[in-house]
Write a structure and sequence with these properties.
The complex is a heterodimer. Chain A has a single domain, classed as Orthogonal Bundle (Arc Repressor Mutant, subunit A). Chain A contains 5 helices and no strands. The N and C termini of chain A lie far apart (67 Å). By secondary structure, chain A is mainly alpha-helical. By secondary structure, chain B is an all-alpha fold. Chain B is elongated, with a radius of gyration of 19 Å. Classes of the chains: A mainly alpha, B mainly alpha. At the A-B interface, helix 1, helix 2, helix 4 and helix 5 of A face helix 2, helix 3, helix 6, helix 7 and helix 8 of B. Zinc ion binds next to helix 1 and helix 4 of chain A.
Chain lengths: 78, 205
């Protein structure tokens, strides 16, 4: 039987659909019986969506400005 | 959020090939954040910025040979990765990596010896991601935690989640195996989960 700890270790693979059919089934069975792991999977999924919604690649506009300046300069010098 | 649809790629590529400065301005602001994320996987912040600048300058000529088979973003990210790898090769720096443990240590400590939850999740995040992100304190907290993630995990997370690269592209760009990428992603997601949990419980970052 799959234990909670083991499930937590493969939770991202489950969410992303990367598990084998057999493994996927044992996670599903576990989740039917274990509300803690249901919460965990739900929260991990929410965290993943949060990460997607967050403009994680937000960078300092000054960095972009410096890149732009360098490119404009190179274009002019061609 | 990164918009994939607001740039018509083939007309942008044509404008870049013609050397139009307005096209470069758009492309630089659109693609540089992802390119910086790739470079940060290999290098410190100031070297990463320098590499991305150099890449753009090389793109001015290289774009003539771009055929659009891989998509502009993937093509740019590969250029950055290759430059970074060359730079590392010449300075002999190794990238530290640990792929042996799938569980974050803090999370691992919440199971008892029989592998059941000793300290289970106390609550479920029931708000949508968009609703959560409206909370500015949480958004700042996320920024802070992202910046504390090991470089490897952060780059994997940013390329895979925020830039929605396919796994095989991320593996290619970061030079990691598919199974190691899975570990990196999972470790990074656990950190974000633990952060949100603490924030929801205590209101503190
Ligand atoms: Zn369980």
């Amino acid at each position: 039987m799959l234990m909670c700890r083991e499930l937590a270790g493969i939770a991202s693979d489950y969410i992303d659909g990367e598990l084998s059919a057999g493994r996927n089934l044992s996670v599903k069975m576990h989740l039917m019986m274990c509300r803690h792991c249901r919460s965990f999977i739900g929260n991990l999924r929410a965290s993943t969506e949060l990460m997607r919604a967050h403009s994680s690649a937000r960078v300092d506009p000054a960095v972009i400005d410096r890149i732009s300046d360098r490119v404009s300069e190179a274009l002019r010098d061609r | 959020m990164i918009q994939q649809t607001d740039l018509d790629e083939s007309s942008l590529v044509e404008a870049l090939k013609r050397g139009e400065s307005s096209a470069y301005a758009r492309a630089v602001s659109h693609f540089s954040p992802g390119m910086l994320a790739v470079a940060r996987y290999y290098l410190d912040a100031s070297s990463a910025e320098e590499i991305v600048q150099d890449c753009w300058v090389s793109v001015i000529d290289a774009i003539q040979k771009f055929e659009g088979r891989s998509g502009l973003k993937t093509w740019l990210h590969r250029i950055v990765a290759n430059r970074c790898k060359n730079k590392l090769r010449s300075s002999q720096r190794e990238i530290p990596t640990d792929f042996s443990e799938r569980l974050d240590p803090e999370l691992a400590s919440r199971f008892n010896t029989s592998g059941r939850w000793a300290s289970p999740p106390k609550l479920r995040f029931d708000e949508s991601a968009d609703a959560l992100m409206e909370n500015e304190a949480l958004s700042d907290c996320l920024d802070k935690h992202l910046s504390h993630l090991p470089e490897t995990q952060r780059s994997a997370l940013i390329l895979y989640e925020a830039h929605q690269h396919k796994s095989e592209d991320v593996c290619n760009i970061l030079d990691v195996s598919a199974s190691n990428l899975r570990v990196m992603l999972h470790r990074a997601r656990q950190k974000i989960l633990l952060m949100v949990e603490t924030f929801q419980e205590t209101g503190e970052c």
